[in-house]
Amino acid sequence: MANEDASRVLEMGNSYVFNLDFSDLMVDIGEEIKVDVEDDNTLVISYQNLLQNSPLNWQSKKFDLPKNVDTDDISAVFMHRLLLVSVKKLNRPKQTKIIKVTMA
Of 65, 86, 91, 102, which is the most buried if we count CB atoms within 10 A? Predict the structure, then answer.
């Protein structure tokens, strides 16, 4: 991708949306763009510029995922030279942890 401004992360009501702009590259969907999750906490988007038609020219961008996401509920859409990857938030209420105070 051309620069760091080519990607953004937006927090929506029930998901995080990773928005990557591919307008400076010749990339198409399929074998040229891959979306993976590593170790349940890193979103990896790999892509190949078709103008550099070599299997060794794969590049990737990594995002640390927040702890409150469901890595089993991820979708990706490529349209108008933009890749939108949506990662759903876990639907669990905040829990309060009570710490017992003891006398020393």
Answer: 65
d(Cα 22, Cα 13) in Å, to the nearest integer?
Answer: 26
Q: Could you tell me if 85 and 75 are in contact, meaning their C-beta atoms sit under 8 angstroms apart?
A: yes
Q: Are 16 and 9 in contact (CB under 8 A)?
A: yes
pTM, whole model, 2 decimals? 0.72
Tens of pLDDT, residues 38-96: 998 999 998 876 666 666 677 889 999 988 899 999 999 988 888 899 999 987 766 67
* Structure token digits, residue 99: 């710490």
At 26, is the secondary structure helix, strand, or coil?
coil
And the tokens for 20?
């990557």
